[in-house]
Design a protein that fits this description.
single chain, 293 residues, mainly alpha, 14 helices, 71% helix, globular
């Protein structure tokens, strides 16, 4: 046999064709991730006359409902109640959409999962990025409203807003990773998640101020702050709602808990640990996903 026709045998273990670096591989393939996000956004508004305008109409309608029902019919004493609610609504919508869409993401993209060798974590991550994209119009509306009210921005508080985004992004993605795999094996999981997320609005200080929790539960209120979503809501309220009131210093002292940043970074740490655990669970069952689809 000639040198050109000689066979070379490589003594190496067989490995699956799909990438094995998990979330790191997702962000290495940024182009593919960007295309998937664009596909998800385009699919949502395909055939729609108003298109992206629905991202403005939907939060505005929810804001009006909360303002009218809670502010006018039931009656609330919270100053700038509409802004208080909307700050919480932004965080809650970001988390719920990430969790719900991420849970359904692998089943919804079954054709890509079965045909392409790609990190399957990309689908829950793309769902989180799509949710973040839809948060943009809500943030524009919130900023416009608080500017009209004479908002006094604080750079340190605005950094807290970025911390809130990081908390929800990490927490939502971690839950989406675990439940997206579970949904592959049991399709009832997506319905369970939809019901579970109904409780989120009442587990955070959105339609009620944190001071009410402090008054009712006293020293036990600190355990309420172990909820990462509640911390994220308070950080956003600190960034936008507090500065829109007549006396920001007094409102901050009354309604924003002490050591909020400490709780915020603790929440981020918990969310990141959950993300590592979720990645391990996802990798444990990933190879069984195609056969279950």
């Amino acid at each position: 046999m000639t040198e050109a026709g000689r066979l070379h045998v490589v003594d190496a273990p067989l490995s699956p064709p799909s990438p094995s670096a998990g979330l790191l591989e997702v962000f290495r393939r940024r182009y593919l991730l960007r295309m998937l996000v664009r596909r998800e956004v385009s699919a949502r508004y395909q055939g729609s006359f108003l298109g992206l305008m629905w991202s403005y109409i939907n939060p505005l309608s929810q804001l009006f409902i909360f303002w009218f029902v809670m502010g006018k019919i039931i009656g609330r004493s919270t100053e700038m109640f509409a802004v208080h609610v909307f700050c919480g609504l932004i965080v809650v919508q970001f988390f719920i959409e990430t969790f719900n869409a991420g849970t359904r993401s692998i089943v919804r993209n079954r054709s890509l999962v079965q045909k392409m060798a790609m990190p399957r974590e990309m689908f829950p991550v793309a769902s989180m990025l799509v949710s973040l994209y839809h948060m943009g119009p809500q943030l524009v509306i919130l900023t416009f409203i608080v500017v009209l009210t004479g908002w006094t921005p604080d750079p340190v508080y605005l950094l807290g807003f970025l911390l809130a985004l990081a908390i929800i992004a990490a927490l939502g993605t971690s839950l989406a990773l675990v439940f997206s795999v579970a949904n592959v094996f049991l399709r009832d999981v997506s319905s369970f998640v939809s019901i579970l997320t109904n409780f989120v609005r009442f587990a955070v200080p959105m339609i009620y101020p944190y001071s009410l929790v402090d008054q009712r539960f006293g020293s036990f209120a600190q355990y309420y702050l172990f909820n990462p979503i509640a911390d994220a809501v308070l950080l956003v309220q600190q960034a936008f709602w507090v500065g829109s009131t007549k006396d920001p210093a007094a409102i901050h002292a009354q309604h924003i808990p002490d050591h909020l940043y400490a709780y915020g970074f603790l929440a981020l740490g918990i969310a990141l640990v959950m993300l590592v655990i979720a990645q391990a669970i996802f990798r444990r069952f990933e190879n069984r996903i195609p056969e279950q689809l």
